[in-house]
Specification:
The complex is a heterodimer of chains A (about 240) and B (about 450).
Chain A: E1 2-4, E2 11-15, H1 21-34, E3 40-44, E4 61-65, E5 80-83, E6 99-102, E7 118-121, E8 134-140, E9 154-159, E10 175-178, E11 189-192, H2 196-208, E12 220-224
Parallel strand pairs in A: 2-3, 3-4, 4-5, 5-6, 6-7, 7-8, 8-9, 9-10
Antiparallel strand pairs in A: 1-2, 10-12, 11-12
Chain B: H1 22-34, E1 39-42, E2 54-56, E3 77-79, E4 88-90, E5 94-96, H2 106-118, E6 123-124, H3 132-137, E7 141-145, H4 154-159, E8 162-166, E9 177-179, H5 186-192, E10 200-202, H6 211-225, E11 232-237, H7 241-250, E12 255-259, E13 265-269, H8 270-275, H9 280-293, E14 301-305, H10 311-319, E15 324-327, H11 329-335, H12 343-348, H13 373-377, H14 381-405, E16 419-421, H15 424-430
Parallel strand pairs in B: 5-15, 6-7, 7-8, 8-11, 11-12, 12-14, 14-15
Antiparallel strand pairs in B: 1-13, 2-16, 3-4, 9-10
Helix pairs in contact in B: 2-14, 7-9, 9-15, 10-14
Classes of the chains: A alpha/beta (about 240), B alpha/beta (about 450).
């Protein structure tokens, strides 16, 4: 079932090929309840399982060796979860705090409704990245798909590559930074001047995400035109 | 009148159009003036086939009744027995439907919790997250997971007694929501992570799943986060109810909530309220059909809402196969909404007791559907809670009275065989015989 790693590394290894997911998540949740137990975990053979390491609420390090399915690290608090592979839809949905790091790419809805914390995707993120985000910071080394940051309320989305169609549709107060091409902006999303404070904000975000090979001044900034904040019939064509 | 005019002095020869009556004329002229559709609260106001169109068959020679004041007729119900480690035990089969803090004032939410707790039933959060007042005063609280995810967090998820994945509601199946800017106080804005005073849109689809296969995975995630403790409800607005219920069951729901088109709303377009969805009456029948087809009736519990007003409505919904009902509009009315006591105040805002439906406007003189501190302070949550408890007791007593008359020792023992219909439409929709006949219109199709 589970095997304790050598004391020197103090890593708890869980093999999902033999350990039920429910047991893994249950044990990780117990650490938030009583505080005692290993702080560094390694999950092997995830084989695309859904809801791996979701609902964590303690300062843990969880390394996942392989690809995961839907909702990996969903609603994460405090923990750092690293996926050495690709992540399926809904990566770190509704994340509250902590960090979720993906070495590969992430499928659609990455960081959906996230309220805090940091998500870093080394590859690409698919459509609706940061949909309805509410305070999370998301840094994508590659590109994001269409409808990313749809109805994004708060937080920051950084895209080092390109963005798909309808970026920031119906955007509220989230900050969007894109280095590459934007296929199209969604309703009420506009390009805004990249002032010094934005370059500094972006520099900090990139540093936090461990990205040191891109120039923050090379990004463009997008935000809400705030024309749809109050429903007006004159804007009906925009909805 | 003897002079050939009615009580308002209108000559008898004037004839109002059925098609263009005064309400229609007023709406056309309002639309022409304002250039925007009418948004309002409350539920459908048009007449649709409902539980009023059914009658219960009390016992006589062929059936034994129970003694009204001596023989027990139990009312408890357990929800979430399919997968949850901790199902919800209710003392009565009537729950309080989801209504948001934001749409309702904090004291109103507190009153709902107080009242429900006093009689041993649950209340439900809404599209605005969970408030400490609500959690503190609700012994059993259902936490809604809605498309907007306003205020959603894992701590509240774990504090909840059950989780309700809201796919839709009866007043607007397929529609999102809109909380108008004048109801966005500092507290509401903070809970929803949005600026104060702007119109807040709620999406019509969930942000991180699409379709029944995803829903199954989403439910799995919620179970993992909460260690399989909580019952998981799935709420749908009544439309293609048979298929929706089957898909929700296959997705792993413990409890299905079906909200008919009469279900209330805090703010929706009038055209949506009146023209989308099917009435509660056929929805119950279709939901029960779906559960029976899967051999899941009573294994996955069914909660029905949308136009429940009396113990008769409760009894008839249960007889058709529901395990419980849910009330929203009636609960607000029980707390004082539309009370004649406030007639003068209603008149000041262009309405009248019995007609008030501007729950979206935030000017509720009773202090229920508002975020105005002064108006909300008018509402006494302790008194409101007592009224809710009283009303729930009356609904329960009425349902018990009817169940005993049908010879039932538990209200859940009521069955379709105890019902007949007054109209052909109701007979066809509920699939019970037209009174005095053995005719169930449409039933011959399946023979």
């Amino acid at each position: 079932m589970t095997a304790n790693a050598p004391e020197a590394t103090a890593v708890e290894v869980v093999d999902l090929a033999v350990t039920p997911l429910r047991e893994l998540n249950g044990r990780l949740h117990e650490l938030a309840r009583d505080g005692a137990g290993p702080r560094h975990w390694r999950v092997v053979n995830p084989n695309g399982a859904h809801a791996v390491a979701c609902g964590l609420d303690a300062e843990l390090e969880v390394e996942i060796e392989g690809h995961v399915g839907y909702y990996c690290a969903g609603m994460n608090k405090l923990a750092t979860v690293r996926v050495h592979g690709n992540a399926g839809p809904g990566l770190a949905e509704n994340i509250m705090s902590g960090r979720v790091l993906v070495d590969g790419s992430a499928s659609q809805y990455a960081g959906a409704t996230g309220r805090g914390g940091l998500i870093v995707v080394q590859g690409d993120a698919s459509s609706r990245c940061g949909i309805s985000m509410k305070g999370v910071d998301i840094v994508v080394r590659g590109s994001v798909g269409h409808m990313s940051a749809f109805m994004a309320q708060r937080g920051r989305l950084v895209v080092c590559g390109d963005a798909g169609e309808a970026l920031g549709d119906s955007l509220y107060e989230a900050h969007l930074y894109v280095a590459g091409e934007v296929a199209g902006l969604g309703a009420d999303c506009v390009e805004k001047p990249m002032r010094d404070e934005h370059v500094e904000e972006l520099r900090g975000l990139l540093a936090d995400a461990g990205v040191d090979d891109v120039d923050p001044a090379s990004f463009r900034r997008y935000g809400s035109a705030r024309q749809l904040y109050t429903f007006k019939v004159d804007n009906a064509a925009a909805y | 009148m003897s002079d050939g005019s009615d009580a308002n002095g209108r000559p008898w020869n004037l004839r109002e159009s059925y098609l263009f009556d005064r309400a229609v004329i007023a709406e056309i002229q309002r639309a022409a003036r304002e250039g925007i559709y009418d948004i309002r609260g409350f539920g459908a106001k048009r007449r649709v086939p409902h539980f009023d169109d059914l009658l219960l068959l009390g016992a006589s020679v062929s059936r034994y009744p129970l003694e009204g004041y001596r023989e027990r007729c139990d009312t408890d119900v357990v929800l979430g027995t399919r997968h949850a480690k901790t199902p919800l035990h209710l003392r009565i089969p009537i729950t309080i439907a989801g209504m948001s803090f934001g749409a309702l004032s904090a004291p109103a939410k507190e009153a709902l919790g107080r009242g429900a707790s006093e009689v041993g039933t649950s209340t439900t959060t809404g599209d605005g997250g969970m408030t400490p007042e609500e959690r503190g005063h609700s012994k059993l609280l259902v936490y809604q997971l809605l498309p907007s995810r306003y205020g959603m967090n894992p701590d509240d998820l774990r504090k909840a007694d059950a989780i309700e994945v809201v796919v839709g509601q009866g007043a607007k199946p397929g529609g999102g929501g809109m909380l108008l800017g004048h109801k966005i106080s500092d507290r509401v804005a903070e809970m929803r992570d949005l600026p104060k005073g702007i119109d807040q849109r709620s999406a019509s689809r969930h942000p991180d799943w699409t379709g029944p296969d995803d829903l199954e995975i989403k439910i799995g995630e919620l179970r993992e986060i909460t260690d399989w403790e909580k019952p998981i409800f799935v709420k749908v607005g009544a439309t293609r109810t048979y298929y929706d219920v089957q898909l929700a069951v296959k997705a792993g729901a413990d409890v299905i909530v079906v909200d008919g088109m009469q279900g209330g709303t805090a703010a929706t377009q009038d055209v949506f309220i009146e023209h989308v969805g099917i009435p509660t009456l056929p929805a119950v029948r279709l939901a029960v059909d779906a559960l029976q087809e899967l051999d899941m009736h009573r294994k996955v519990q069914l909660i029905v809402s949308g136009g429940i007003r009396s113990g008769a409505d409760v009894a008839k919904a249960l007889a058709l196969g529901a395990d419980a009902v849910s009330i929203g509009t009636a609960a607000l009315i029980a707390m004082g909404d539309n009370s004649p006591e406030y007639e003068r105040e209603y008149a000041k805002i262009g309405s009248s007791a019995g007609y008030y439906d501007d729950w979206q406007a935030g000017r509720d003189p009773v202090g229920i559907s508002t975020q105005d501190d002064e108006l909300a302070a008018r509402f006494d949550p302790e008194l409101g809670g007592r009224r809710i408890a009283n009303y729930l007791r009356v609904l329960t007593l009425e349902a018990q009275t009817l169940a005993r008359a049908c010879g039932k020792t538990h209200v859940l023992n009521l069955e379709p065989e105890d019902l007949v219909a007054l109209t052909i439409e109701a007979a066809a929709m509920a699939r019970v015989p037209l009174a005095g006949t053995d005719w169930i219109p449409g039933a011959e199709r399946s023979l």
